[in-house]
Amino acid sequence: MTATSGTGTGQGEENTPVRVMVVDDHPMWRDAVARDLAESGFEVVATAGDGEQAVRRALAAAPDVLVLDLNLPVKPGVQVCKELVAHNPALRVLVLSASGEHADVLEAVKSGATGYLLKSASTQELLDAVRRTAAGDPVFTPGLAGLVLGEYRRLAAEPAPAADAGT
Fold first, then answer.
1. pTM summary value
2. What is the CATH number of domain 10-152?
C-alpha cells in the first residue's frame, strides 16, 4: 500500500481498493469527504445522512471502513456503530466528529469504533486515518488517544466484581 492511495487493505488483497462509506447529516461535508476519499483511490460504496439510512445502506454496501459522524438525526451515531459492528465485527469504524468531549470519545469506543478524528483534521490527516483504520490500527486525534488509554487502564485496575456466592 502506498502512502497516497486507498488501495491495499480492502478484502485482504493488495490491490483491492478499500471500500468506504461516509455518514454525516451535513450534505456539503459528507460530499466533500466522499469526494476526497474517491480522488485518493478509495472506493466510496455508499453515503448516508441519518442513522437509519446509514444502517440500511451499510448492510447492503458492506464497506471495509465506515466514516461516521456521531450527531445524526433519526438514530445517533453511537447506536449505528453498535448495530453495524454487532452485525459485522470485521467492520472498522472511524468516527469523524466536531466533538472532542471525553464522554463522546469514550462512548464511541465502547460502541465499537476503532478510531476517532476531529473534524478540524486536515484532508491528509483524514486520508491517513482511513488507511490506518482499514489496516486495523487504532486512530485517534492527538490528545484523545491518551484519554482512551487512561480509561482502559482505570477499568483494568478496578477489582473484578465478586462472584455471587448463591450461584
1. 0.82
2. 3.40.50.2300
